[in-house]
Amino acid sequence: TTGESLKTADDIVTFKFAVRSIAKRFGLYATFMPKPRMDVAGSGMHMNLKLMKDGKNVFRNEDGSASEEAYAFAAGIIKHAQALVAIGNPTVNSYKRLFGGHEAPCTISWSSKGERAFVKIDSDMEDTKVELRFPDGSANPYLLLACSIKAGLDGIKNKLEIGAECKTASDYAAAPLLPENLSEAIKALNADELLINTLEQIFAEKLKSLICEEPIVLSNASVFDMLGYIKTYNTGAENYLRTMKDFTDRILPQELHDIFYSIITKNAQLGIDALSINKVMTNLIPTFNVQLANK
């Protein structure tokens, strides 16, 4: 989608609602989970930003190159990177995507060509944009755009220098790491005065009181992640059973698969609704997580 920031956020929310509604008609569930499986690339939500003034792109010089404002804007994003990931990557599973390989950004870095950068300054024959490569589909687009624009404008206002471009693997290896989990990201956001003020008092106070309890971190997508993202709404136990069977077939080792699936099946046969089954399985998360971690 292309347009002003508020319309773009509206379009993103509308798109996700439409996709989920259509999927539901066919007995499916559409999820924007960042990293459901470790053996395939995650689901990102890259955003391309540009500032317009009097109908012209502020990020683009007359000769087609990126302007000083483009670099300063990107420098502002870099400056507030650790706090921004709490907005752009707001779930526990988000960090399995960022640190799960497949070219997802895990460092505070920028590039004009590389696909592993946190920020990419993209200037071609037609346009010049600052691409945010870190967000994923679980992000609130309204908060993400507001905070990203505020961070970028901070860079322009203070004429920040962006630093050296990452061009090689060794450059990325030397770059600072992003927060490795949601708890670290929230702490960074709480310490970022500019973004906290952008979120306004009511939201900021709620955020400061938030205690992030993370599940056991596994190398694979955990049972906690899957149960958290397989939302059942009014799909009923039958559809929930089908969805969870697919999950158990793909993810769990055989000995855990049999236990897991038998519990789901038994509850479904008893006529227990999907939301209650989900609750039952969620209560078993610590047991399954520990067994998976020991594999």
Strand content: 5-15%
Q: Number of helical segments?
A: 14
Report the principal-axis shape: globular
Helix content: 40-55%
Low-confidence spans: pLDDT under 50, at least 5 residues?
Answer: 211-221, 230-237, 284-295
Structural features, described:
This protein has 295 residues and is α+β, with helices and mostly antiparallel strands. The chain has helices spanning 5-25, 68-79, 81-88, 94-98, 141-157, 169-174, 182-190, 193-198, 200-208, 223-229, 236-251, 254-269, 274-283, 285-293, and strands at 47-49, 52-53, 56-57, 110-111, 119-123, 128-132. The strands form two sheets. A four-stranded mixed beta sheet has the order 1-6-5-4, covered by helices on one side. A hairpin with a 2-residue loop joins strand 2 (52-53) and strand 3. Helix 1 packs antiparallel against helix 5, helix 2 packs across helix 5 and helix 3 crosses helix 7 (182-190). The relative contact order is 0.13.
Write the layout of secondary structure elements.
Elements: H1 5-25, E1 47-49, E2 52-53, E3 56-57, H2 68-79, H3 81-88, H4 94-98, E4 110-111, E5 119-123, E6 128-132, H5 141-157, H6 169-174, H7 182-190, H8 193-198, H9 200-208, H10 223-229, H11 236-251, H12 254-269, H13 274-283, H14 285-293
Parallel strand pairs: 4-5
Antiparallel strand pairs: 1-6, 2-3, 5-6
Helix pairs in contact: 1-5, 2-5, 3-7, 11-12
Short description:
This protein is α+β, with helices and mostly antiparallel strands and 295 residues long. It is 51% helix and 6% strand.
